[in-house]
Amino acid sequence: MIFRLQILMMAALMLIAGCSGVPRRARMTPLEVEKADYLASKAALVNIGLESFKGKGRITLSDGRIVRSARVFWIGSKDGGLRLQTLGVSGRPDVSIAGDGDCFYFFSHLDRRFQKKCSSDPNLENFLGVSVRFSEIESLLYGRAPVRDHDTVFYEQDDDGHVLGFENRWGRCVQRIGFSEDMETIRWSEVYGSNRKRVYRVEFRNRRTVDGFSIPFYIGLFNDDGAGFKLEIERYWPNADTSSTSFFLEPVSADD
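Request: output the structure for the sequence above.
Response:
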C-alpha cells in the first residue's frame, strides 16, 4: 500500500512539473514533427560551403550600463580559428582576441596585457559579460545560429513565424530558434540555462547575399541585463584566404 502511494505521489509531481519527463516531440502531431525536422535541417545547412571569412565593421559592447563602440576586423576558418581586432580612436590596434582550436589568446595593445588559456572552446563571459562560448561567436560570424547540445527537437508557431525548439534528455528546453514565415530564414535564437532562465538572445537582421551566402549584416547578442554586443558589418569576404598563424597571439607579435 505504501509503495503504491509513493508511485501515485511521483506521478502527481510529474504532472505538476508539466510532464517534464515526456518530450514535447512525443506530444506533437505528425505535421509538427515534419516541420521540426525540416527546420532542423535548415538550421544545419545554413551557408554550407562557407569555410572561411574576413570582415570589417563596428562593434558596440555593453555591460548593461556602460556602452563602448569601436571599429573591428575579423578573420575565421573552418578549423576553428578565429581572430578579432578592435581599433582605438587613433586608428591603432586596441584589443586582439584569437583562438586556434587549442588555446585562446587575449592581448591589450595599450597596456601590453596578455592572457593565454589552453581551452578549445572557452566561455567569454569575463570579456563580454554574457555566457557565450568562443565557438558560438564563430558560428554567428558564419551567419549561423549556434546549436547547444540537445536530445530532441520540437516545433512551435509564434505570431511572426515558426520556432524550432531543442530539449535535453530530461525534457528541459535548452534553446529556441525563430524562423521567418516562409521557414527559410533564421531571425533569432534564444539559449536557456539549467535554471530555465534565458542566457542570451541573438537577433539576425539585414541579411544580404554575398557570393551566394546569406550573411546578416546586423548581429545583436544580449542577456536580460542588457550586457552583450551588437555587430554592424560593413564588408564581408566569404571563403577568404587565411593562415594558421593569424589565430596565434603572443605579446611580441600581436602588433603585426
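The longest strand covers residues 198-210.
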